[in-house]
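Q: Could you fold this chain for me?
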Amino acid sequence: MLTVDFSRFPLAPGDRVLDLGCGAGRHAFECYRRGARVVALDRDAEEIREVAKWFAAMKEAGEAPAGAEATAMEGDALALPFPDDSFDAVIISEVMEHIPDDKGVLAEMVRVLRPGGRIAVTVPRYGPEKVCWALSDAYHEVEGGHIRIYRAGELLAKMRGAGLKPYGTHHAHALHSPYWWLKCAFGVNRDGDDAALPVRAYHKLLVWDIMKKPLATRLAEELLNPVMGKSFVAYATKPHLPAGAVSGQGTA
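A: Sure. Below is the predicted structure, expressed as structure tokens.
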């Protein structure tokens, strides 16, 4: 299930892509399939081991074209182990709401992105997320949980403040908002067979939708995304430096 829309975030074969806070690797896998040279980075060692296994399996199965490369590695989003201008594109999906120093993360992403490169940022949307917080303290009051809810204008302002130039936004995953409302209402920590019947039933619907992609639910989600999409997605470019400017130097 992808949150980034690659028709709005185009990649060319051979592009260097960083999936920052990659989690289970869904966007990194898609970049690899598209022929990118992708680095999937996360602080969770167990997640990184799993992502590395899937990269190897994809290579063995021939799912990535010739020239594509994939690396999974542990790392700190606030101290990225890459030189300036290392990547053509950076993705950070459902990560910034977890990190106290979100401005620091943006600064690091801008540092490693080449001038003219693109960034895709996704965060939980304000309205659906606010409902989750109202229904359940356990949803956000956990170690490593969500520490803020972004309004769209706030996130875009922070991106501009980091030196980025936003060029597009949209919302995604409207059908997932009711699932999380149900989870929060019936017990966000109840999973599997322990989950309440409405949660289990809706989860089956989502799995069916993801696997089968029926036209009815695809159209429904497209219509509902502007109203109740679970994620807000913003795309931006790193402008080229003006003539005579020197990267990394401020002005008096």
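A (continued): Residues 246-252 have pLDDT under 50 and may be disordered.
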